[in-house]
From TrEMBL:
Gene Ontology molecular-function annotations: 1-acylglycerol-3-phosphate O-acyltransferase activity
Gene Ontology terms describing biological process: phosphatidic acid biosynthetic process
Name of this chain's protein: Acyltransferase
InterPro entries (UniProt xref): Plipid/glycerol_acylTrfase
Annotated metabolic or biological route of this protein: Lipid metabolism
Any matching Pfam family: Acyltransferase
Domain Phospholipid/glycerol acyltransferase: 2-101
Organism: Acinetobacter baumannii
SMART domains: PlsC
Amino acid sequence: GWYGFLAIFGLGIQITVLGKDSLFKPPFKRVLDWAGVIPVKRDSANGLTEQVVATIQQYDKIWIGMAPEGTRKKAKKMKSGFYHIAAKANIPIVMFSFDYDRKTIHCLGYLTPSGNYDEDLAKIFERYEGKISPKNRNWLAEPLQNLVKKT
């Protein structure tokens, strides 16, 4: 659970994560603000992608951590918001994988979105193949299940 946070603190990188605006109420608001969590309205008329792009453009330097495959339940397909955010904000996608078995995190490089989602997603999948070892394989999006490291 906490290995990702420990790695981030150990590297001295300030990673920003997005949180539902409804979480920003006492007693959590102070902790979330301190941790650099950015509130977003998922049901906003402007759309989540546009909100995040606008947030990115407010900073000279920002790292935003996202789990595009979902974290609590299995999905039929990959969510594409991470890609569209990076493409619209003109920033690279830096890829990390978590090896739950070994309690390690791997940086798999980066990809600058070309604008062709399907081609870029295939390149992303190539980077992840054999480098994923989740705690619960059933929570991965179906396209990622075949990329899991063979033990």
